[in-house]
Batch of 2 targets.
Target 1
Amino acid sequence: MAETIGFYTLSVLILGLAVLVVTAKNTVHSILFLVMNFLCVAVLYVVLQAEFLAVIQVLVYAGGIVVLYLIVVMLVNLKGEAEAHQDPRRLSVIGLALAGAVLLELAGILVYSSGSDAAVPSSEAVASPVQGNVEELGWLLYTDYLIPFEVASVLLLVAMIGAILLARREV
Amino acid sequence: MDLIWLIPVLPGVGAALNGILGVRYFSKTVAAGIACATMGGSLLLSVFAFVQLLGAEHREHVVSLGDWIPPIPLQTVNGLGAFEVPWAFRLDPLSGMMILIVTGIGFLIHLYSSAYMSHEPRGGYVRFFCYLNLFCFFMLTLVLGSTFLVMFVGWEGVGLCSYLLIGFWYHKKSAADAGKKAFVVNRVGDFGFVLGVFLIFFTFGTLDFREVAEAAAQLPVETATFGVLSTICLLLFIGAVGKSAQIPLYVWLPDAMEGPTPVSALIHAATMVTAGVYMVGRNAVLFSQAPMIMTTVATVGVVTALLAATIGLVQTDIKKVLAYSTVSQLGYMFLATGVGAFAAAAFHLMTHAFFKALLFLGSGSVIHAMNDEQDMQKMGGMKLYMPVTFVTMFVGSVAIAGVPPFSGFFSKDEILYRTFLDNKLLWGLAVLTAGMTAFYMFRLIFMTFFGEYRGPSWGSQNGDDHAADDGGHHDDGHAHAWHGPHESPSLMTGPLMVLAVGACVAGFVGIPAALGGDNAIEHFLEPAFVAESAAHSEEGAHEVAHLSHAAEIGLMAFSVLIAAFGIALAYHLYVRRPERSKELATNWAGAHRVLTNKYYVDEAYNATLVKGTMGGARGLWTVDRKVVDGAVNGTGWFTRASAWVSHVLDKYVVDGLVNLVGWVCAEGSYIFRRGQTGLIQNYAVAALFGVFTFVTVYLVARFVGL
Amino acid sequence: MMEITTVHYTVLSAALFSIGVIGVLVRRNIIIIFMAIELMLNAVNINLVAHAHRLENLVGEVFVVFVIAVAAAEAAVGLGIILAFFRNKETVNIDEMNVMRW
């Protein structure tokens, strides 16, 4: 029962904050709502027994990326209204309608197909030599997923260099 | 004798020096010096060569300077022949005599010109001597040339120089026109000459004079037929007619008097115009084989002589009289060749060169003295002012009139005698001409030197003393003011005196047997006129036609009588009773007018040939303009029209298609282009629409069941 | 109140994703659009973690780690582009970023 209450509470928080992020007039407010949203998601991860991800979520998302956004907002330093100009040809209403329709359809699909595949235990529960969420994750990352892991690190390196190049004042 | 090639080359060098360097750098003295020195050198060489020739056993010498045209295979009548022309010069009695005449008289005239032309500005003076030297170069090439082609080089060259010198005062339209006329009329003759040369090569396969003569001697005499030899001779004779101013091509020679007087003396009296006679003599063997052409030559010669003499009777321009006299005397020479008396022709050629050059130079002296006045009606009494000129010209006139023992008497009587043997009618005409010759020459003398002075008065009219004083020490200052008639400078009278001596004694080389001589020149020249192979066999045949000495002397006496009558008539009409000549002119107005207008030959030529040519040219021009240009323009118009059609097609059909494709693309793309707004979010909407479609399809497939 | 199952999580995930999509499509401030994209990535992450939980298999969580890495890279490069663009055009309005058209 507590889990149910917790889940709905978190769900309302997450969705509400997400709506606030999208609708906020002030960009800084939007970022603050985003931070809170990320923190809620981290809590959700804890509920789902993914402690390491929860930590990563807090550290990387709420701590790193959002600070990055904040810094960019500071740097951009808008004088006028950010969204003053609106192109008459944009299809916002259609996009809104389509997005709602897709959500409804997905929800319908999920709700009506939920019985068929519920609680299928993994037949391939690999016997891991370590115990605990963090240890197992670490094990996986440094054994089976070593190469993707390294590729991800190269990706980050490239992104770093690219960001530096793009943000440099004089080329 | 091996240096005879230097004889023509020396004046050529002089001409090159004067022409290339002289016109810019040489003074008058240097230019005249070079010209006279080269001519003098040529004269000396000629004399040496001639003396050597006299001493030689075989009186023929050929010097070849090497190939001009290397052997070229060409078709002849006897199959393929080698067309080969060396730069060869031939010295034989005929050319020996000619080079003496050309260099001798040429040298004297060079000397004379250096004084006569002294009024010219420096450039014109040097140019004059350049031309004169060039003329001598070509003339000597002509007479020394050993083949027809080398001769032709000289032939054309003298024609060129004649043109240049007649038109020497080119700023005078009449002089320029006269030069053109001479050149064009000569072209007619040269055309015949060239055709003759072609035919000679085609017939004999060689162009060497001696070889042609030998070959021709082997052919039968064309008494009744008009064969290839006759054709050759006719063509060559056309060339000679053009160059030697015979009917019908004589019209250029009187006009050629527009040139400076020394030029008239050298080119149009002594040398170039005799080239035709020389050429016929050179080909004596050929002509001997064609009797029909010989008759033609004789007839043309005597008719020319008579006609020119009649015109000469009434001319008042002193040089025109001499010009017609020259034509007439050339007619005599052709008459001689026509009756087979080649040696007599050459003899007369020589004596004529002396006395006609003398007369021209004398007239030049008079003209000079009269400040370029040529009309005899404005002269008179000149013997007081210029005694030397008077005496020398008188000698010349006596010589041309045929008074013994002057040179003209011997040569002319030789011709008359040989003509008498051949044809009595021709003889009669020739004697009549001789009488006229005497008349018009003495008319000239009497009008010029006797009677009252009729010329314009001069500035300081202080009488005869002044003019007499002026005679000796004449200088270049003369040009600025005319002080009345006066004797010419010694550079001019000197040649006159030398030529006068020549005119006196030149005849003594040909004293006929009837008068106790041995006709040396005839024997000397004879080898040049017969083929070598025939020389000995025909020795006897030559002596066939013969009159007794008494009859010959009788003929001489008759012609002298005729000449004397002519002189007496002239004296009567122009000295004793000058008014009678005018009465005659009025009484016989018609004839007088015809003669004064030279039988209207020029007018006739103008009306027929010149007009015809011009008309033809104009017609052709019209054809050219209308038809050829029309065709060209039509082509152009057609091209433009088709281009226009093509342009329209291109513009509306081809471009239309291209534009249609473009328009279809543009219009067709409009609908697609509308989608390309550049708004990123619209693209995202499109992607979302894809997702929506995908999910919808899934949903329908899953739950509705398809 | 029923038990909370994976379906709940996936519906939550779908809703969060849809909110992100709406944000991307509707907002014109490019920074907020980027934030909406972060929301969508989070929705995916939730989905992955939920299923990993259900299947008791940590491979899903490994994917989340990679997604987070990619998100970090995306944020860095995207914000760099925004900065460069802003320096040239003095705007962050995506409607003015329309140079890629005819």
Target 2
Amino acid sequence: MKEIRIHGRGGQGSVTAAELLAVAAFEDGKYSQAFPAFGVERRGAPVTAFTRINDRRIRLRSQIYEPDYIIVQDPTLIEVVDVASGAKPNGKILINTEFSPDTFDLDTEAQVMTIDATRIALDIIGRPIVNTILLGAFAGATGEIRVESIQNAVTERFPGKVGEKNSQAVLEAYQRMEAV
Amino acid sequence: MTGKMTVVEGSYAVAHAVKICRPNVISAYPITPQTHIVEDLSQFMADGEIPNCEYINVESEFSAISTLVGASAVGARTYSSTTSQGLELMHEVLFNVSGMRLPIVMTVANRAVSAPINIWNDHQDSISQRDTGWMQLYAEDPQEAADMTAQAYRVAEDKDIMLPAMVCMDGFILSHVYEPVILLEQELTDEYLPGFEPEHILDPAKPKTFGAFADPSTYTEFRYLQQKGMDAALEKIENAADDFNKIFGRYYGGLIDTYEAEDAEILLFAMGSVVGTIKDVIDRARTEGVKVGLVKVRAFRPFPVEAIRKVVKDASVIVTLDKNISLGLNEGALCTEVKSCLYNTDINIPVIGFLLGHGGRDIPRRNIRMIIDKAKQVIRSGVTIESEYADLRGELI
């Protein structure tokens, strides 16, 4: 079983990202489960969401304490939330930032990876919404999921032009991370 | 399994199941974490997807359930959903519903009760309605919560039962989780669940009275007959699960279900979503040679006394896990009920109770493992503590 934790702020679509990841994993023929760290949601407040991906049905209902992968939508969270908490030593932490991985001094053995998803979002979508883009980056960085499945989940959730642009941005992020 | 899986939110799976069960009147008042269920139902209504149905907006949970009393009494299949303070506000009317033998089905998205205010999951809300005369069924996952909705209508509307039913699903943990679910199919559900045709309805052409005055000469018999309905439900809940399995190919147990229980020395008892986590912990413990098993209690009312007596008899220790507490007794309801059904029998097995997961406190696998370790100690040296919290933060007290 692979466990993923997504950190973001209220309004950044972290919960949606976790759900889309579950939908995409299911399309890949896996079982999946997505849920938020249920809070009283407020715009801007730190939000955590979780996704599990497994070959068998998932029965476990606890939160995720030792994630294989961590996605950080907003680098300013690193100052207020221990985003690397419990990260597996062979895991990966994917941060949305313009800076390189060595900029971040996280207390972890997990591999830190970065992508400027905000730039991609502004260039392709025209708005700084990065949740779908980071899923593309996740697919490229981890190989856990097919990028086509992410794209399908995105266009199904956001029909029309919005979905198309998001899908294009997903592919761009995927290709960049795959090249790393 | 039949049917195609699709990834949906637990609330959607339940709302969809309600739609497929062809309700005639829905009335509910939104409250976290039940909200998504009634939002989805409102959407179905707005899209014209529920034929012959009226969604009645109301100003409180008290009104929601009162509305359904009238609707059910004229022969409508009725549905509501609520949680926590909303359920507590319904309390008075819940007795009227069961006393009038109205088979209303209601989803409870289980949540803690105030004060202090808390929107997260435990079972205090529905457990506090234990004696209202409603059947109470607890679901392990979204699939079971959806399927249980159809099963609940089938049992509730049986002419030998005619009692309301709560389908309890853990708030947030099950109501807000996205995972693959087989949505109820209309054709199969129509085969499984016939239309609601009550023997007695309010009808101006044939006037009758529901819930009329009963003085001391008759009141006792009304209550006695309600219990008879509950007695009949014991077998019908089993049948409803079996018949569901025949048509849909899905089975979650009847009154109870068991997991690795056959040769278990340590037998855990639990209800709701924690059951899934427990199964994972049992698998791990079994690989280390710990003989531990699980009894999942699906029906809390009627309480499956005979089924429990049968299943525990070879265990060395029984351990209950409760997301509720009876203050003043320091026990959860499962603990008290399980102990009570073993008395006056030749079964003499120690029972210890653990309180956990209250107010949404997460239940990691290590907590279940710790409970199993404590149960091992009981086998070695007997009961020292009958009931205690498994996840108390001592540093806060």
